[in-house]
Amino acid sequence: MTLGFPAGFRWGTATAAYQIEGSTTADGRGPSIWDTFTARPGMATGDPACDHYRRYREDVRLLSELGVPYYRFSVAWSRVMPDGRTVEPRGLAFYDRLVDTLLDHGITPMVTLYHWDLPEALQAEGGWPNRALADLFADYALTVHKVLGDRVRQWTTINEPFCAAFIGYGNGDHAPGIRDEGAALVAGHNLLLAHGKATQALRSAGGEQEVSIVLNFAPVLTDVDDAAHREAARKFDFLHNRFFLDPLLGRGYPPELLADLAHLGTLEPAIADGDLEIIAQPLDVLGVNYYAPARAVPLDDPETDSNCPLPGLRGMDVQPPRGELTSLGWEQRPECFTELLLWLHEHCGGLPLVIAENGAAFEDEVVEGRVHDEKRVRYFAEHLAAVHTAIERGADVRGYMAWSLLDNFEWAMGYTQRFGLVHVDFETQERVLKDSALFYADVVARNGL
Ligand code: IFM
Question: Domains of the chain by range and CATH?
Fold first, then answer.
């Protein structure tokens, strides 16, 4: 039986600048927080990653061979503005060439303006906890739009502000590696403000562009259905899934969430008059990243810190995943994807949704020139079926971007986790299409599964 997707469904693949480009000092690029963070002893760095800065033509040819019509990539702020403010034309020219090459191959570019690689110069000014960055981000958005806006219609301001704020400034597992929960909350608010101001700037530039933000969602599961477990799940759900979503929808931060975080003392004072109106710019679509659910459990002492990225979310812990896991240890639950999309459809009042990332890391091996990545094929098949079910049940899902086109630099995990449809040998930079790439190409060609 074929599971057909709606006519015009947008099929694509996604990448991010720091994860694939390499060439971190080429053509005047300035350091980003990820260059500084990965300079720590023992860490893999984003150089050469997939050497995409020099091999982008080859990568676009691969995309074209696969017949996947959309490509979501991110622009590195520190390539375009090495100090966060001053334009480097050679950096902009790279993205200009990339967009032209994509269009020459009939592939529609989708631009993400921020996928975690803040110019180090702006971190030196305090990073995202400094609200001045919101205006600088809007200037940067406009600068990129001036060059690409005649050819790019789909714009995403920020990818996964949850990770940028809470993993970057909360538990410090990501760049800039700061552990300061109070600062993390302010960073989260300022990222939203930056999104709002950039959206205003993009709209003021005129044209027909579609503006979105991409959020990563984790439906929360519990083992027991009692009041204590429901409250533990509620706490994590509000931090993970609603901290960003509700202000974007014009509802402000949920009062319960403000109460959960009140003892940290920084979020409410950071919300200036008018901020919530700026944040709530109408969105054309919401970008949804889904990989896995989370599991929550109550802690007996409501004053005990949590093991989640924001320990001050007290009284709950995240439990280890279970069942079938990916190589990153993430639980495979396609049914949670369906439920998430249905919930989003309802919670966001029918706002169109695009899956901006979904995929899985497994240990792949090239054997006689082939990569038989059955587990990834199954992951995609099950998760696409889950999206299909959500559409059948009424969710307005307009597209799906597989994460990721290429095996790449997986942040703090370096090159140990392979998410690609295309295998990359990081020694030789040879690319080999995995079975999952052929599977996905077939899905795209049929517009169905
Ligand atoms: O690789 C990341 C990506 O940069 C953001 N979303 C999750 C992916 C897998 O961890």
Answer: 10-446 (3.20.20.80)
